[in-house]
Design brief:
Elements lengths: L1 H29 L6 H34 L4 H12 L1 H16 L5 H34 L2 H12 L14 H11 L15
Helix pairs in contact: 1-2, 1-5, 1-6, 2-3, 2-4, 2-5, 2-6, 2-7, 3-5, 4-5
Length: 196
């Protein structure tokens, strides 16, 4: 089903960025990689601009709202997910603040940013697992073909972040630069991130 493919692809894109940042922080902590703050800022920007600003609203509007029309099953999980969606800006602000401290040379900046990022990544892992293990199976159980088409149409409104969007932000360009700048094995290691 196209709708499920889009949702799963978007989750995989997010997981890839989380993995990339986690890997980079591990290497920075070991002293084998110098911090590239422009790259880290670009990755944090992506985490806000796509998952928080585009993906979550689509889930609320097209997936959860439609599932609520079909069944009460999973209501507690959906309420938790919607509450987590509502807290997105608080999570992003904590991450941005920690990155700013790190980039400004705060003596505990690296550890602070690493903790903030690990909290963020752990949250998203749990969040996506709840969606994939509880909500998507309920959608498979209760949705009609018309429901699936409506969800797919809603999710197509903003293309996969790694394939670009119709909005002003070109996520394909951002992602290409992240891959080029990130060290192997997550990227090509071609040099520092450039946003030109």
């Amino acid at each position: 089903m196209e709708a499920l493919r889009i949702i799963e692809d978007e989750h995989q894109s997010l997981a890839a960025i989380l993995h990339a940042v986690r890997y980079m922080l591990k290497e920075i902590g070991k002293g084998t990689l110098a911090p590239d703050f422009r790259l880290l800022r670009a990755m944090v920007h992506y985490l806000d601009a796509y998952p928080e600003q585009r993906h979550h609203p689509k889930e609320d509007q097209y997936l959860f709202a439609r599932l609520k029309l079909r069944t009460d099953e999973g209501a507690e999980a959906m309420a938790r997910l919607e509450q987590e969606h509502a807290g997105g800006q608080t999570r992003i602000k904590a991450l941005e603040t920690a990155l700013h401290q790190y980039a400004s040379g705060d003596k505990d900046g690296f550890d602070t940013f690493t903790r903030a990022f690990e909290n963020f990544a752990d949250f998203y892992r749990s969040h996506m697992l709840l969606e994939e293990r509880e909500i998507l199976p309920l959608c498979r159980k209760y949705f009609t073909d018309e429901d699936w088409e409506a969800v797919a149409a809603g999710f197509r409104e903003n293309n996969d972040p790694m394939g670009g969007t119709r909005d002003t932000e070109d996520f394909q360009r951002i992602f290409s630069r992240l891959v080029a700048a990130a060290p192997p094995p997550i990227g090509l290691g071609a040099g520092p991130y450039r946003d030109d």
